[in-house]
Automatic annotation (TrEMBL):
<dbReference type="InterPro" id="IPR004393">
    <property type="entry name" value="NadC"/>
</dbReference>
<feature type="binding site">
    <location>
        <position position="240"/>
    </location>
    <ligand>
        <name>substrate</name>
    </ligand>
</feature>
<feature type="binding site">
    <location>
        <begin position="150"/>
        <end position="152"/>
    </location>
    <ligand>
        <name>substrate</name>
    </ligand>
</feature>
<comment type="function">
    <text>Involved in the catabolism of quinolinic acid (QA).</text>
</comment>
<dbReference type="InterPro" id="IPR036068">
    <property type="entry name" value="Nicotinate_pribotase-like_C"/>
</dbReference>
<dbReference type="Pfam" id="PF02749">
    <property type="entry name" value="QRPTase_N"/>
</dbReference>
<dbReference type="InterPro" id="IPR002638">
    <property type="entry name" value="Quinolinate_PRibosylTrfase_C"/>
</dbReference>
<feature type="binding site">
    <location>
        <position position="219"/>
    </location>
    <ligand>
        <name>substrate</name>
    </ligand>
</feature>
<dbReference type="InterPro" id="IPR027277">
    <property type="entry name" value="NadC/ModD"/>
</dbReference>
<dbReference type="GO" id="GO:0009435">
    <property type="term" value="P:NAD+ biosynthetic process"/>
</dbReference>
<comment type="similarity">
    <text>Belongs to the NadC/ModD family.</text>
</comment>
<feature type="domain" description="Quinolinate phosphoribosyl transferase N-terminal">
    <location>
        <begin position="42"/>
        <end position="127"/>
    </location>
</feature>
<feature type="binding site">
    <location>
        <begin position="263"/>
        <end position="265"/>
    </location>
    <ligand>
        <name>substrate</name>
    </ligand>
</feature>
<comment type="subunit">
    <text>Hexamer formed by 3 homodimers.</text>
</comment>
<keyword id="KW-0808">Transferase</keyword>
<dbReference type="GO" id="GO:0034213">
    <property type="term" value="P:quinolinate catabolic process"/>
</dbReference>
<dbReference type="Pfam" id="PF01729">
    <property type="entry name" value="QRPTase_C"/>
</dbReference>
Length: 305
């Protein structure tokens, strides 16, 4: 996103999405982060800052965007020092302009400085993901397509990054390999042993072993795979790296017999054309795997205690 990007207001709250994070995994992430960043405390602040000095700090937006990680920022500050006061001035999922104050922190200066980098790292990344997601969602507006993330997340941070996608108005794909069946090209290659004529038979046999609540999705990369996959009664068919014209043909061929997902070559230049083909879902790895941290800063004023 450039500094002059215009982002429409995010509709996440309007459609009733649950913008809440479970406390336990967030605390675990923060504890690991602080163990990495300050395993024996902050020796710089201990050397330079009086123990009784207090600080007021403002989380300031230097570019426009969509906020995500408000409570993570607060929890990071208060995990270091429960006595730190954090006033959240915007909620998760809200749009902001450059110069907006997002939160205000007051507490012991040493505590604020120790927590600063971990808190900023997380809220900058989460807000970048929310902002990027909002751009994709805006470009798909007026179509039936839902923008979703993928499993291309930072190891250990998936719960935060998936939350940020929701803050940007997007939706989440399966959370992990344990949640749903998604047979991709390598699965099909091993399954069929190079004999595509057996595809329907093998998928039917696999589906018969599933519980009725488990979602079954299959990826295809050629038009001639669509009918054999549909014949197995899958829930979703993923059309991978299809051109927009091929996607239109694929949607017509599926004709409502399964949900249609588009994947591959999805970026801000292509997503509107993909959405216009009539697909139900567009999965976008770029929501999480290539974002750059949003430029947010913590501006601190110190006052001797």
């Amino acid at each position: 996103m450039t500094e002059n990007s215009v982002i429409a207001p995010v509709a996440a709250r309007a459609v009733g999405l649950d913008l809440a994070l479970p406390a336990a995994p967030v605390r675990e992430i923060l504890e690991r982060a602080f163990a990495e960043d300050a395993p024996a405390g902050d020796i710089t602040s201990q050397l330079l800052i009086p123990a009784d000095a207090r600080a007021t700090a403002v989380l300031n937006a230097r570019v426009p965007g969509v906020f995500s990680g408000a409570t993570v920022f607060r929890d990071a500050m208060q995990l270091v020092d429960p006595g730190t006061t954090v006033e959240l001035l915007l909620a998760d999922g809200e749009r902001f302009d450059a110069g907006t104050h997002l939160a205000r922190v007051t507490g012991r200066a040493r505590s604020v400085l120790l927590a600063e980098r971990v808190a900023l790292n997380l809220v900058q990344r989460m807000s970048a993901i929310a902002t990027r997601t909002a751009e994709f969602v805006q470009l798909a507006e007026g179509t039936r397509a839902r923008i979703t993330d993928t499993r291309k997340t930072t190891p250990g941070l998936r719960i935060l990054e998936r939350f940020a996608v929701r803050c940007g108005g997007g939706a989440n794909h399966r959370y992990s390999l344990s949640d749903a069946v998604l047979a991709k090209d390598n699965h099909l290659a091993v399954m069929t042993g190079g004999d595509p004529a057996r595809l329907t038979e093998l998928l039917l046999a696999a589906k018969a072993q599933l519980g009725h609540t488990t979602h079954f999705e299959v990826e295809v990369d050629r038009m001639d795979q669509i009918e054999p996959v549909l014949a197995a009664g899958v829930d979703t068919i993923m059309l991978d790296n299809f051109t927009p014209e091929e996607l239109r043909q694929g949607v017509a061929l599926v004709a409502g017999r399964a949900r249609v997902e588009a994947s591959g070559n999805v970026n801000l230049s292509t997503v509107a054309g993909i959405a216009a083909t009539g697909v139900d879902v567009i999965s976008v790895g770029a929501l999480t795997h290539t974002v750059a941290a949003l430029d947010l800063g913590l501006d601190v004023e110190l006052t001797a205690g």
